[in-house]
Structure prediction request, 133 residues.
Amino acid sequence: MTARAAPNTTSGWDRLAQAVAQAIPPGEVDAVWLFAPLRRDANEWGTAVLSRLEGERRRIYTARYTLAVKGKERGRFQATVQDVGTGPVEVLTRVLRDAQRRSDDEHPPTAVAPEVWFASVPPGAAGADAPAG
Prediction:
């Protein structure tokens, strides 16, 4: 899924949460991890990893955004949400730690409660109450 929004002052994370809510019902997300956003030149990039439990396994999603923070394109926003697979519940913590090491990021991803991350999503937003599929 790809989303584009009109320029506004909402943070990249809020806008990404709204885009994710179009693809995954927020009530089904059991965990969210945010990697530190990167800024270079006129753009900011952010990556979140989300999961939802499916029995003894977790379905993992990667959500990414690009936000133009300077220049003529300021406010341009693009987001993607990608289903990247499933795995045993206990494996995800190790995968996130390994991803941080590979990315050479000195800060580990930050766990955020789903209800906090999705706080900017209006109740009844399209897709937010859709059944799992």
Summary: The helical segments are 12-23, 92-103, 114-117. The first strand starts at residue 2 and ends at 5. The radius of gyration is 15 Å.
